[in-house]
Amino acid sequence: MKTWIRWSSAGVIGLAVLGAATWELVLRPENASLPVTAGTGPHPDLPQPNHTLFPTVNVATPVGWAEGKSAAKTN
What we know:
Blueprint: H1 3-27
Protein name: Sorbosone dehydrogenase
């Protein structure tokens, strides 16, 4: 077999493995296992920590103040 064919096959296999690893580590989101109401109140039912290589961070979408409204001053 020619050398370039061997390297080409290895490249395709390596790219497939890299793509699968990227999907597993980065692109696959985590889902909540409990409803929001279970984590509130005086005795919340919290799940055990799930340690991952890349932690899940859900960034909130910023929303500005309504027209003519602003934050209240505190004294």
